[in-house]
Amino acid sequence: MKTSQIIIKNALIVNYNEETHADILITGNKIALIDRNISAPGAYVIDAGGKYVIPGGIDTHVHFALPTFAGLTADDFLTGSHAAIWGGTTSVIDFVTPLHGQSLVQAYLQRQAEASGALVNVFFHVSPIEWTENTAQQMSQLVKDYGVTSFKVYMAYKNSIGIDDKTLIKVLETAGRLGALTIVHCENDEIIEYLRDKYYSQGKTLPLYHPLSRPDEAEAEAIGRLSLYAKSLDVPVYAVHVSTEKGINIIRQRQAEGVQFFAETCPQYLTFTDEVYDAPFVEAAKYVMSPPLRKEHDRDALWEALGDGTVSTIGTDHCSFTNDQKAMGKDDFRHIPNGAGGVEHRLEILFTLGVASRKLTMQQFVQLTSYNAAQIFRLKGKGMIAQGYDADLVIWDPEQKHTISVENHKMNADNNIYEGIEVVGQAETVIIGGKVVKDQGQLFV
Ligand SMILES: [Zn+2]
Known about the structure:
The structure is a single chain. The chain is α/β, with parallel strands linked by helices. The chain is built from 14 helices and 19 strands. It has helices at about 75-85, 105-115, 135-145, 165-180, 190-200, 210, 215-235, 245-255, 265-270, 280-285, 295-305, 325, 345-355, 360-375; strands spanning about 5-15, 20-25, 30-35, 45, 50-55, 55-60, 65-70, 70, 90-95, 120-125, 150-155, 180-185, 235-240, 260-265, 315, 395-405, 420-430, 435-440, 440-445. The strands form four sheets. Strands 1, 2, 3, 4, 5, 16, 17, 18 and 19 form a nine-stranded mixed sheet that branches. A hairpin with a 2-residue loop joins strand 17 and strand 18. Helix 3 runs parallel beside helix 4 and helix 7 runs parallel beside helix 8. The longest helix is centred in the middle third of the chain and has 18 residues, at about 215-235. It is globular and about 70 Å long. About 55% of the residues are buried. Bound molecules: zinc ion.
């Protein structure tokens, strides 16, 4: 019988805190040994000479098979997994959004079943969208019986899944008591909804009114308000997809005061500015997402925040739509489904714009793409290359170049916001749970 052992030879292993030249022995689904000159008769040997070996990427923020007013998003758990693997991501955290009146536990079990076809590890943030007499008990059950470590709430979208501040405070306090983390979409709903309707009623229907109706102050105000609650209740919080300099400045200040305020940003906010909205509909609509793309000073501030540790994680907010779906908002920017795909490109964009451009070290790259996420969301066995950890890892070729294109991407949508960008660095080999799932330009799933 063939052994289930793999040896990765000549690895330059990069963890969050050190770089080590060694071999890695994988037995079953675990990292069994890290040492010089490992030999194991019958093991499958991969030579990683000249390459980095990094923990498998963890994308903290994806929406696969998300039901929306424009139908299901373009990537389901299978195509989303393919794209994730291709780009070096081995774990994703998706979302459980119940219907009004539905139990959080029931919604969690249903979502878990929907994700059963996934080829990567899938974890969930669970969203209380209302406060009922059962909510606290359901949150407790999710934490204790199902290992949920995070709850997601929306300060925006109050007319659907968003919550008012009274409910927000209850969720924050309950999650804190349970030792769970509340993660928050921070935008001031009132002014955004007002501006959206105002622009539309003035005949301003183009995609470029999307960013204009979601000013940076709307994000900063909500971040500030959340930080007040976090400080007053003494609970940890995490702002998803932070996009503005003003928001970053508040978070940095609160962190200095000792508030446990974690921040996530996304590759798109590190890559583009709002200039992309000044384009014909099909092109501009691709970039309609919330929060919207911002100004150059915001992008610069985000890079600085990655460098100094204010921002801990990079999630893609992967939420892909086809051009047909985007066209629903052809005559009304309010009806363009919000979101874009990116799960495939997270590591290569961060490597190209960060590491290869000397803004980030390899260790910071590992912190931002896997280690910090594993720590913050307590994903046991993830985020490190060390003995006893899960054998989820990536052999990263720092020299390989390619141009991102809808012609050859693995994501399912017929558009790509990164179209035409040349990236350097590529996941050459990807191993999940001790199984080689990508190698030399081929998927084995
Ligand atoms: Zn999202």
